[in-house]
Amino acid sequence: MTVMGTDDQVLTEVETLVRQWLDDAAGQRVAPAARRLADVLRDPAGLGFTVGFVDRVIRPDDNAVAAANLRDLARNTPGFLPWHLRLMIRLGAVLSLVAPGVVIPIAARALREMVGHLLVDAIDARLGRSIARIRERGVALNINLLGEAVLGRREAARRLKGTEQLLARPDVDYVSIKVSATVPPHSAWAFDEAVDHVEQSLLPLFTLAATSSTKKFINLDMEEYRDLEMTMAVFTRLLDRPELLDLEAGIVLQAYLPDALSAMIRLQDWARARRQRGGAGIKVRLVKGANLPMEHVEASLHDWPLATWSTKQDTDTNYKRVLNYALQPDRTENIRIGVAGHNLFDIAYAWTLAGHRGVRDRVDFEMLLGMAEAQAEAVRQTVGGLLLYVPVVHPKDFDVAIAYLVRRLEEGASQENFMSAVFELHSDSQLYRRERDRFIASLRALDAAGTGEVPQPNRCQDRRMDNPEDAVQQPFSNVADTDPALPGNRAWGRAITDRIAGSTAGMALVDEHTMTSAEALETVIATAATASWSARSGAERGAVLRRAAATLQAARPALLEVMAAETGKTLDQGDPEVSEAIDFANYYAGLAEKLDEIDGATAVPVGLTVVTPPWNFPVAIPAGSTLAALAAGSAVIIKPATQARRCGSVMVQALWDAGIPRDALQLVHVDEGELGTRLVSDPRVGRLILTGAFDTAALFRSFRSDLPLLAETSGKNAIVITPHADLDLAVKDLVYSAFGHAGQKCSAASLGILVGSVARSKRFRDQLVDAVTSLTVGYPSDPTAQMGPIIEPAHDKLLRALTTLAPGEQWLVEPRRLDDTGRLWSPGVKTGVRRGSEFHLTEYFGPVLGLIDATDLDEAIAIQNQVDYGLTAGLHTLDREETERWIDRVEAGNAYVNRSTVGAIVRRQPFGGWKKSSVGAGAKAGGPNYLIGLCDWAPARATEAGRITAAVQPLLDGATELGLARADMEFLERSLKSDARCWEQEFGLARDVTGLEAEKNVLRYRPVPVTVRTEDGMTAPLLRVVGAGLLAGSDITVSTPVPLDPAVAELLRSQGVACRAENADTWRNALRDNPPDRVRLLGGSRGEFAEASRGRADIALYAQPVVEAGRVELLTFLREQAVAVTAHRFGSPTPLVEGLFG
């Protein structure tokens, strides 16, 4: 095929046309609306103000919130507005204090008028007038109905019915609709079933077009890459139906996807065959693509390659590549081409190319309503016709047009985009040269590549062809989840789904490792306790763990199969869990290598760690706990949860396959009675890692009061939704957080706290009901299932939550038992939950959500913090002040803003809670400090020093007056400098190590009160520990059996440290009746402390020898908090997060 590229004749023809169009446009009167748009794009503050006005004044349901936002925006009214509009905005801001209900509707009408040339009112009478007025310009119209976010069946049906009503109008002959707008969200792993569903949903619309007495045209639109294959499948399936064989219809292709040409070739082959059967041709609308920011978001959050071309020039070249392929006489007989866009050079090129090849009668030119209208008219006069893309929206849905408007405005403002120069192109020779040079560069790239080349997709992941070694990430990065948009992965996933019902995976391993006698268990414990694993260096252990990343990747299909078969995990829930397990292997391998390098202390591996994981994350948590202990140098005995024995067994086999010695990693299945108690209470156990209920942690301590227990326990998590929130997004995240894995996640949000007007918002309620009632519930062997079963028949508190209402509560969505097993329930939503009620304070672990009202954000935070737990917490708001206030006050280890509360990712969001959600002297899983709590520590000399801060220097100065030995003073100074160094590098920072543009992920450290109990009377170690606490900013209490030396006590008190003399009886009573949350024990023994405290699980004991390492000692006084904040709005950066953490 001949490439029409950069020869002089072509360039001359193109430039001549472009200059002609610019000259013609310059002679036309510029409409006021178009001039305002130009002013918006020129003014540096114009885009931000306009988008902010739409998003913050027009979008909110609550007029008072909108009025407050208007007052904020009015402080910086940009200069592009004429003086009278600036005056009106400022006057409106003042009046909004007393009459928001009057001012905001006026502001909404004013904005609709301002952007009315970009959108059309969908009310019948106004729509008819608008269509007639636009058609007077000699153009055709492609109507696209905008609406609320499609979260369920109701909105999908409304959008489809609205589009059918549009197409039935005598003055409408052309409509566009996206497949994603016609059905509720479906399982990403049910491609075939989703195609069937969409086809049946769209069939009446296509039938209407085919049977109409006048010609009607339907264009299938798309935005997201993941919809490409589905849109093509639906399109071809519909038009292959015998009754639709004569219908001409259209589909869009996006040139910013490398996949565009291969898709065009497939469509050409199919269209040719259809015409050979006597069918009509089709049309392809070729666009550059308008979803680039969100494609960046999608790729970055999932660790997938960017689906689009990486540069604008590559996109421009691909646009011409597809045109060169399509605009051939034998091909245009099958596919008519719609050249869509405003770049005059591209339009001129397409017109010239079509002319040279004699196919101008098979080309349409398409532009957007209201954009560069004078140039559009000039083009129309040359090409003989123009099709305008016309979005229509009902006034009550005007705010949902925000995403469309943002894309249009940001496209226009981007310096990479032709539209940024469109208003000055005629008068500014520099801008003209810029656009001409870009055009020539894109053609030259086409010349260099040749049009015979068919670009390959950027996303080519195919799990059927995986090389497991690719999962080894050094240096660390998160491995990619499986992309269900890709055909190979879908076939791979369907094969797994087909095996679920008859799966026997892991059964033989369970049988082999089930212990029924104390003697067999003793053999296992004795073998593990004497394993030589601890003799390996951190680097040696890390190398083995990296091999485990590869074997876990190889086991991904088996792990997904067994999780689904045994615990009811659907593929969309299970696949990220396998990725998490692999991430743990890679991440802890890196930490193991660093463990030997900690300055000021020596890591001493414990002999044996017992891991007792949960059933709800039957692969990731067992793997993470086991790998962490192995990384820290400890042998491991893992006892998987009874409900997930097969899952745990298959995971352990993958670790053995990596070369982890079987003596160092023992798998046991024992009953939860005598043998289980024997395992947990064995004195050789140096650590026990538990993930489960707080009551289980307390039970284990009752078996052995001095058990070194590290536990992530329960959570009662809530998402606060304020009137400043994007309610559609809030509903989406609330539903996902509440009902993923049937609500059986410790991070699940089982409460929605609705602030102010949100509790009365009809839109919020309607969208919530629609989303919840549209979830497909089923067993994982059904690929359409979006919510699986609960682990066992509902009973006790969960059954009560699913079937009964407390005073004041009502069912917004009443759950139903769906089969005789008692495991399959539809999701439920309660309203009227009262503060302090059982539902407010109790973790149920199932598919039931409660809604509780709050007067304002302060009350909402109080309600959220009132529970005993502090695992995850969420907030939905677009207000900066609310965000700051919430982040400063929320009591949770993992805090999320404008996203779901589930799905923590290794290193990105280290996981672990506060209050009763955490037991023991541990740190966040998947975070930089997790291995420190899994080791014992021996003293070593610190060599790295930072600058001692003003908070600590007086302590050191005062110590010089105490007559300490020189060695003690040197020890103290080295220790405090080590603290300072670690504070500068880690603990004093709020750091985001991920660097994601779409999401801010910060790990920070917050001070926590600590009681220092010194039993040995040694002054230097006491001052060293107190110094760490002072640097951390903690409230410190020093407890001693006898009064401190007066000089020491005076020094401590002068630094704000409380000093108490408590004899053994007083101390014991304090531990039992009013215990501190954390105790740093100096001298004494764990055993004596355990006896005195009766093994209370709610006291975190730090009892290692005092070391100089700030990396170790500072952790006593700090608790970690991971804060994740969505950092984009429709894919574009939002000022909400700028400087949020300093």
TrEMBL record:
It catalyses: L-glutamate 5-semialdehyde + NAD(+) + H2O = L-glutamate + NADH + 2 H(+). Its EC number is 1.2.1.88. The active site is at E712, C746. It comes from the Bacteria. Residues 519-926 form the Aldehyde dehydrogenase domain. InterPro entries: Ald_DH/histidinol_DH, Ald_DH_C, Ald_DH_CS_CYS, Ald_DH_CS_GLU, Ald_DH_N, Aldehyde_DH_dom, Bifunct_PutA, FAD-linked_oxidoreductase-like. One of its GO terms (molecular function) is proline dehydrogenase activity. It is an enzyme of class 1 (oxidoreductase). Residues 129-420 form the Proline dehydrogenase domain. Keywords: NAD, Oxidoreductase. GO terms for biological process: L-proline catabolic process to L-glutamate. SUPFAM superfamilies: ALDH-like, FAD-linked oxidoreductase. Belongs to the aldehyde dehydrogenase family. This is L-glutamate gamma-semialdehyde dehydrogenase.
